[in-house]
Amino acid sequence: MPLWHVYHPPGAYDPGHKQRLSADVTGFYTRVGLPKFYVIVLFHEVAADSFHVGGEPHGQAVRVVVEHIARHTQDPRHRRHTRETLAALLAPHTTERGLYCELHIDETPQDLWMIDGLTPPPPDSETERAWARDNRPTPY
Amino acid sequence: MPLWHVYHPPGAYDPGHKQRLSADVTGFYTRVGLPKFYVIVLFHEVAADSFHVGGEPHGQAVRVVVEHIARHTQDPRHRRHTRETLAALLAPHTTERGLYCELHIDETPQDLWMIDGLTPPPPDSETERAWARDNRPTPY
Amino acid sequence: MPLWHVYHPPGAYDPGHKQRLSADVTGFYTRVGLPKFYVIVLFHEVAADSFHVGGEPHGQAVRVVVEHIARHTQDPRHRRHTRETLAALLAPHTTERGLYCELHIDETPQDLWMIDGLTPPPPDSETERAWARDNRPTPY
Fold this sequence. Notes:
The structure is a homotrimer of 140-residue chains. Chain A is of the alpha/beta class and 140 residues long. Chain A has one domain (3-134): Macrophage Migration Inhibitory Factor. Chain A has three helices and seven strands. Chain A has helices spanning 15-30, 76-90, 126-134; strands at residues 3-8, 40-45, 51-53, 56-57, 61-68, 100-107, 113-115. In chain A, the strands form two sheets. Chain A has a four-stranded mixed sheet, covered by helices on one side. In chain A, strands 3-4 form a two-stranded antiparallel sheet. Chain A starts with a strand and ends in a 6-residue tail after the last helix. Chains in contact: A-B, A-C, B-C. The interface between A and C is medium-sized, with 36 and 34 residues.
């Protein structure tokens, strides 16, 4: 967690661009203390004739699907901050380059999640901080 | 929202067929007032040896994953109507062509969703109707 | 249900290996009585430069996304058993072969689910047992 799926037109992102985008995404989560390796971003090329918006092929659209597991909040201001910050983070990679962009986030259960055979530690725990420091999961 | 993923055998759908399927899907949502451009359908070819049903490769199966964001309902009759209508809509594109078909819908939070940098308007609001009329998101 | 997505490096799994992995997955669910054909496993190759972990391309990671529909439980011990058993099931296919592995499970609504035009029968019902016995959905 988080898991990001970025569905994008062929050729929209070269390897360097993908890395800048995923670095921006990763920074959002590490700033609130999550281990860097928690952030997985998968890029999926989808050709226009397989990418339909409103019933028509679309060659300039990016659809981002995010799954949040490690952190959930019920606070409406926090939720607004999350969606607006992530949309702003994506803007230079999408709308500012002429790519239409839609994003949504799902929240999935923390207790149905495993990393390398280990149950991830509780949010803000000492073990989570150690995982963040080492940037890898270690038995605890 | 809605986002449709259609996982299908290579060659099952040519571009024209994809367009008919996504037009049928789009019509379902626009009939209840959603803006046309809200409906995104992504087609993903999956070869038989990467598409297993019951532990065996399957070359004639379609798996549809739907994410609903803009509209949720708790009314059991409405939910039954939704699932049955969508299955019926898919039948000419799947079972009636000899393709096995499974479909499920997830419902994700309305307040963790952004379109082109904007928070989508509330359901059935004047702004949503304007977006539907213009078939594009405009600042409000 | 369940639906498994396995995102993996190109070449990590040949057809025989995919079949062993999906047979192991399928066995987990059939042991608790689910029809074999309920289990769908989709394998998706993702090249290193489209598979980022912690902001960097990663050529040796497997990310598994599971969607559970037919069975949900609130019992913490049962949930722990599920996540640990599935992680252990994946170990010979991932960590024991030097592949980093993250897994999470989402739970989606039972009443927004259709198989071949039919509403799947209730958990542990006579019809579900008949579907398991016949390994196919039959009208009821």
